Amino acid sequence: MTEKLPGVKHIIAMSSGKGGVGKSTASVNLALALSQLGFKTGLSDVDIFGPSVPVMLGLQNAERPLMTADQRLVPLEKYGLKIMSMALLVDAESPAIFRGPMVTKFLQQFILGVAWGELDYLVLDLPPGTGDTQLSLAQSIPLSGAIILTTPQDVSLNVARRGLRMFEKVRVPILGIIENMSGWTCEKCGHHSDIFGAGGGRQMSEELHVPYLGSIPIDPQIVSGGDRGEPIVLSLPNSEVSKAYVAIANQLIDQLSETSTLSQLGAF
Ligand code: ADP
C-alpha cells in the first residue's frame, strides 16, 4: 500500500523513450490482462502528447468525470477497469497547459487526485521520453516499478539507458523491458517476417541486467480493435498478442508479489 494513495497496492508506470511505439496500447491491454486474471485494476492516462486511452476503450464521448465532496475525480468504469485520462477533462486541441513547471502538478491530479478505491494494480500511461516531466512524475508518484517499452528498430541502447538512469536516479525499480511490434506472421500463409528486426529488446535487457518481460508481435487487429474501442485482449483472447499480454501480466504479478513479501520481511 502506498501512503499517497491508500488502497492502491501497486503502481506500475509504462514508459517509452519516444512516442508511437505502442505505449498506450500496451497500457490498456496490460491493465485488461491484469483485470482478467482477477485483480482490481485501474488505468491512468497522463500521456500529454497523445492521450489515446479514451478512444481505445470507447470512452471518447463519455461524460466528464464527477468530483467527490473532497474534490477528488471519480474514475470512469469500462470492461471492469477504473479509468482516468486527462483527455476526459482537457480539450486535446489546447495544449498550452502542457508546458512549464505546472505540468507535473497538473498531471499528478489524474493519478493522486482520483478516488480509486481499493486497487491491486494501477497502470500509468506516462508521457513518452525522459525529460523533466517524466522525472518529476517518477519522483512524486509512489511507483512500485516501471516498464520500458521499445520496438526492435528503436532499440537504441542510449535511449533505453536514459530511461533506466532516470528511474534509477529516483530509486524506481525497473520491472522489465517489453519489445512491441516484434515480427509479423502472415495469417494466410504462415510466413514470418521480422519487419523491424527482432531480439533487440532481449539483448538490451541482458546488457542492462533487467528482466525481459516479453515480445508483442505486429497484428493489424490491434489497430482496428484500438480504433473501435475494443482492445484485443478482450476481442481476440486467443490471439498471440493477447496471450503475450497475459504472460507479461503473470510475470509482473510474480515479480511484484516477491517484492512485497520481501519488504514485509524487512529485506528492503
Ligand atoms: P504510443 O502510446 O506509444 O504513442 P500507441 O499505443 O498509440 O503508441 O500506438 C501507435 C499505433 O500503433 C496505434 O495505431 C496502435 O494501434 C498501433 N500498434 C501498437 N502496437 C501494435 C502492434 N503490436 N501491432 C500493430 N499495431 C500496433
Key features of this structure:
two-stranded antiparallel ribbon; alpha/beta; single chain; 10 strands; 268 residues; 8-stranded mixed sheet
How are the SSEs placed, and which strands pair?
Layout: E1 8-16, H1 23-36, E2 41-45, H2 53-56, E3 76-78, E4 81-85, H3 102-109, E5 119-125, H4 132-140, E6 145-150, H5 157-169, E7 174-180, E8 184-185, E9 192-193, H6 200-208, E10 212-216, H7 220-228, H8 232-235, H9 240-264
Parallel strand pairs: 1-5, 1-6, 2-4, 2-5, 6-7, 7-10
Antiparallel strand pairs: 3-4, 8-9
The structure holds adenosine-5'-diphosphate.
Adenosine-5'-diphosphate (ADP) binds at residues 16, 19-25, 47, 50, 52, 128, 180-181, 216, 218-219, 222-223, 226.
Commentary on this structure:
- The protein is an alpha/beta fold.
- The protein contains nine helices and ten strands.
- It has helices at residues 23-36, 53-56, 102-109, 132-140, 157-169, 200-208, 220-228, 232-235, 240-264; strands spanning 8-16, 41-45, 76-78, 81-85, 119-125, 145-150, 174-180, 184-185, 192-193, 212-216.
- It has an eight-stranded mixed beta sheet with strand order 3-4-2-5-1-6-7-10, sandwiched between helices. It has a two-stranded antiparallel ribbon with strand order 8-9.
- Helix 5 (157-169) links the parallel strand 6 (145-150) and strand 7.
- It binds adenosine-5'-diphosphate (ADP).
- Residues 16, 19-25, 47, 50, 52, 128, 180-181, 216, 218-219, 222-223, 226 line the site of adenosine-5'-diphosphate.
